[in-house]
């Protein structure tokens, strides 16, 4: 349904004491992937690796510097769910108007159809159908995220981009929202791009998981495969710091320290070089490409495997 090819986005920096106007933040450095119908592509990586830039570029909120985004069919609708369900809801609007807004904007319904459609959507996302006249502040965080989900699915999008949809919620509520997303995917045949920094959550949700580092996808595989046979040293680091995954499995024996790379002055070579405990001489000179390993659906960008 979606093919993303060589997407590049560099944010220009204002000239200042430590930078010139030519300096740029290298947020996306050539990201490619495909997304099939009713599939979930999970994107995981630490803060600043370019996840939201990728989401915004695909949604057209940001223009890429280069690369292509192709939808199949071309008229496939895309919607989004963002992290903070409070900030993304207009406090002065009634929930029935919020939840049906995309439908009205696309002229898929008329004003008189709002109440019926809102009831239907509220039910779909597990809220009482007669709550449409309430305002966002009358809802809990989890309920507000349900409203955001209802709004996102209202216009029957083929693809929904979820950017950290549960990270602002209590842990006890998170799984309810994740399961609602899965249930809706099944019912409505939605494809998701599911972004989170928590690899356990991404493994749970996805058909394919792509690990991002410094604006690159450094590893990509189905969740079971990635979990059982992580290849990239950065993926091993991510898996080792999740308590429930790392506890009994000494996936990564060596400690990785160091800072995330400087996205303004990016050096040649592997972006993970400065933090990688197993780097080789070549890693400093040339950046490895993302390539399939022995298994076709498992790709990795690391000189250890090339
Ligand atoms: N509008 C912008 N203008 C300038 N720089 C930006 C802009 N948006 C993001 N950046 C920078 O681009 C890089 C990638 O940011 P992005 O928000 O895509 O990361 P992220 O992976 O979503 O992080 P987080 O997990 O914290 O949400 C960061 O260095 C960020 O500071
Ligand atoms: S290419 Fe080299 S530096 Fe980069 S992750 Fe692999 S071993 Fe480490
Ligand atoms: Mg983000």
| Secondary-structure element pattern, one letter each | EEEHEEHHHHEHEHEEHHHHEE
Which class of secondary structure composition applies to the elements? Answer: alpha/beta
Tally of strands: 11
Q: Helical amount among residues, as a percent range?
A: 25-40%
Task: Show unreliable segments.
Answer: 248-254
Total helical segments: 11
Under CATH, the topology of the domain at 2-76 and 158-229 can be stated as: Rossmann fold
Report the CATH C-level class of the domain at 2-76 and 158-229: Alpha Beta
Biggest sheet: strand arrangement: 5-6-7-3-8-9-11-10
For the residues shown, what is the average pLDDT? 92
Task: Specify the CATH architecture of the domain at 2-76 and 158-229.
Answer: 3-Layer(aba) Sandwich
- Give the overall silhouette: globular
CATH fourth-tier homologous superfamily of the domain at 2-76 and 158-229: P-loop containing nucleotide triphosphate hydrolases
Quaternary class:
single chain
**Small ligands present:** adenosine-5'-triphosphate, iron/sulfur cluster, magnesium ion
Which percent band covers the strand fraction? Answer: 15-25%
Distance between the termini: 30 Å
Sketch the major β-sheet.
8 strands, mixed
Mind telling me the C-alpha Rg? 21 Å
Question: Care to describe what's here?
Answer:
There is one protein chain. The chain is globular and about 65 Å long. The strands form two sheets. An eight-stranded mixed β-sheet has the order 5-6-7-3-8-9-11-10, with helices on both faces. 39% of the residues are buried. Strand 8 (208-213) and strand 9 (216-221) form a beta hairpin. The chain has eleven helices and eleven strands. Mean pLDDT is 92; it is low at 248-254. The chain has 306 residues and is α/β, with parallel strands linked by helices. It has helices spanning 51-59, 95-99, 101-105, 114-124, 141-154, 171-188, 199-205, 223-228, 233-240, 243-246, 281-285, and strands at residues 2-12, 24-35, 40-44, 66-71, 78-81, 159-163, 191-196, 208-213, 216-221, 291-292, 299-300. The protein has a domain at 2-76 and 158-229: Rossmann fold. The protein starts with a strand and ends in a 6-residue tail after the last strand. Magnesium ion binds at residues 51-52, 163.
């Amino acid at each position: 349904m979606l093919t993303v090819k060589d997407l590049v986005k560099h944010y220009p920096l204002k000239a200042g004491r430590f930078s010139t106007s030519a300096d740029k933040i290298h947020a996306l450095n050539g990201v490619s992937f495909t997304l099939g119908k009713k599939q979930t592509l999970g994107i995981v990586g630490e803060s600043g690796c370019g996840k939201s830039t990728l989401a915004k570029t695909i949604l057209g909120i940001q223009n890429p510097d280069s690369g292509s985004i192709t939808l199949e069919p071309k008229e496939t609708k895309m919607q989004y769910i963002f992290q903070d369900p409070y900030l993304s809801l207009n406090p002065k609007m009634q929930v029935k108007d919020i939840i049906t807004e995309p439908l009205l904007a696309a002229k898929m319904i008329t004003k008189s159809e709002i109440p019926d459609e809102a009831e239907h959507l509220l039910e779909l996302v597990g809220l009482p159908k007669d709550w449409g006249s309430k305002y966002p502040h009358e809802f809990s965080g989890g309920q507000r995220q349900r409203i955001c989900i209802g709004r996102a699915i209202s216009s029957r999008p083929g693809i929904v981009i979820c950017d950290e949809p549960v990270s602002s919620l209590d842990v006890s509520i998170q799984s309810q929202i994740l399961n609602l997303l899965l249930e809706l995917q099944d019912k409505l045949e939605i494809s998701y791009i599911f972004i989170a920094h928590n690899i356990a959550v991404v493994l749970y949700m996805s058909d394919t998981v792509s690990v991002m580092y410094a604006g690159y996808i450094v590893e990509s595989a189905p969740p079971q495969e990635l979990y059982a046979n992580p290849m990239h040293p950065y993926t091993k680091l991510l898996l080792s710091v999740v308590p429930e995954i790392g506890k009994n499995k000494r996936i990564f024996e060596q400690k990785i320290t160091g800072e995330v790379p400087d996205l303004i002055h990016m050096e040649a070579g592997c972006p993970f070089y400065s933090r990688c405990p197993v780097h080789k001489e070549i890693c400093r000179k040339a950046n490895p490409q993302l390539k399939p390993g022995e298994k076709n659906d498992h790709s990795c960008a690391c000189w250890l495997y090339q």
